[in-house]
Design goal:
Elements (H helix, E strand, L loop, with lengths): L1 H14 L16 E4 L2 E5 L12 H14 L7 H5 L2 H14 L3 E5 L2 H12 L5 E5 L4 H10 L2 E5 L4 H10 L5 E6 L11 H10 L3 E5 L14 H4 L8 E6 L9 E5 L1 H10 L1 H4 L6 H15 L2 H17 L14 E7 L1 H13 L2 E2 L2 E2 L9 E6 L6 H14 L1
Parallel strand pairs: 2-11, 4-5, 4-6, 6-7, 7-8
Antiparallel strand pairs: 1-2, 3-9, 8-9, 10-13, 12-13
Helix pairs in contact: 2-12, 4-12, 5-6, 13-15
């Protein structure tokens, strides 16, 4: 029977320590949560600035529901595009310095919407080998030739671009890599896009709100202005504390995405409540320098607290600090040992990361305290 094959494959995942499990939070998104009645100190959320439960965003939601209701009722291009959506797109464009922005319901939808709208059969996408799964899927959906270069290997990328006779070229990369915490060489990527007349599409899911002046993102951090060949994708469910994503760029490219991006056109628009919440979140990002400085202090304390131990943090100046453990069973043992001590640090395994590079992914939030970091480092010292 056909479902027996699935049972066998699930058993194989379990045997290889690759079976995923879900834990149900009994509290809102925070650094201190409850799961199954047990209080936990959590280092697993992408709520980098601690805005997911901010009272000003909660107030914006309460006010919006009375004015706009809960649902949009239709696609953006039919009847679902409401004033909060329009105001949000205009505010996002101003915030990052682009001509226009287009709001998508999720980051995954933004990625699979942008790439196939810019390239197709006969074209080529040049992608970093460690790109997020949504970017990999976006290339597959585009039906363009998928050419992967070694992680941040600009010499290899240039050779591939120079040898390509594709009609259109597109360079595709995460700005901040979600499982390593490092940052793509954005200036070099842009220079190569200029030299070989390619699109440059950057997914800044983990940089938006954290890096740059006022949290404007990785482009701002490196002083790279918007250009007609550049498409910037920012996620709004991480540092911004709400949900959704946006693509920003020239007026021409955003108009083209609005006309042809399937994941934008053929879905019901998100709730106007979400758009209203995000307008409040943007204002908090602008005045959030103290929170970004707190992230820096926490990062420094984490590195100092683990100095001299076997737990070697990967280089990162973002909120993501992975520790490579190696094998799947080994990283699960460490994660479980932390859980027994009331600390939740997720064990990340293949296919999310390469085989043999299973890791603890420590995600910091501005809501963490130095005492929280001390508790984590003390527990890791005990476990080693």
């Amino acid at each position: 029977m056909i479902w027996k094959e699935l049972e066998s494959q699930l058993a194989e995942l379990a045997d290889n320590h690759l079976l995923r499990t879900r834990r149900t939070l009994e509290t809102g998104c925070s650094t201190h949560i409850s799961v199954s009645g047990k209080p936990l100190l959590a280092f697993c959320s992408n709520d980098y600035l601690g805005l997911a439960s901010h009272p000003l965003i909660q107030d914006a939601i309460c006010n919006a529901v009375h004015q706009w209701g809960t649902g949009s009722g239709g696609s953006h291009v039919v009847n679902g595009h409401m004033m909060p959506h329009q105001q949000l797109e205009e505010a996002l464009a101003r915030f990052v310095g682009a001509d226009r922005a287009l709001y998508y319901s999720t980051g995954y939808m933004a990625n699979i919407g942008v790439v196939p709208t810019l390239v197709g059969r006969g074209d080529a996408v040049f992608a970093d080998r460690l790109n997020h799964a949504s970017l990999i899927d976006a290339v597959q959906l585009s039906r363009a030739d998928h050419r992967r270069y070694g992680h941040k290997d600009m010499a290899q990328l240039e050779k591939m671009l120079a040898a390509s006779d594709a009609k259109r070229k597109l360079i595709l990369s995460d700005a901040v890599f979600s499982m390593d915490g490092d940052v793509a060489p954005l200036k070099e990527l842009f220079d190569l896009a200029e030299r070989y007349d390619a699109w440059l599409v950057l997914d800044d899911a983990h940089g938006f709100g954290v890096l740059g002046q006022e949290g404007k993102g990785s482009l701002n951090h490196f002083g790279i202005p918007f250009h007609p060949r550049l498409v910037y994708i920012g996620t709004l469910g991480k540092a911004a504390g709400v949900s959704g994503a946006f693509a920003a760029g020239s007026a021409t490219v955003i108009e083209w995405l609005m006309q042809r991006s399937r994941s934008y056109i053929f879905t019901t628009a998100s709730s106007p409540i979400i758009a209203s919440a995000l307008l409040a979140a943007l204002e908090l990002l602008k005045v959030g320098e103290d929170r970004r400085q707190q992230l820096h202090r926490l990062s420094t304390a984490l590195h100092e607290g683990l100095r001299g131990t076997k737990w070697q943090l990967m280089p990162s100046f973002t909120a993501i600090h992975p520790i490579i453990v190696g094998e799947n069973d080994a990283v699960l043992r460490v994660s479980d040992a932390l859980m027994e001590r009331g600390i939740w640090v997720p064990a990340i395994r293949p296919p999310t990361v390469p085989k043999g590079q299973a890791r603890l992914r420590i995600s910091l939030s501005a809501s963490h305290t130095l005492e929280d970091i001390a508790r984590l480092t003390s527990a890791l010292r005990e476990i080693q």
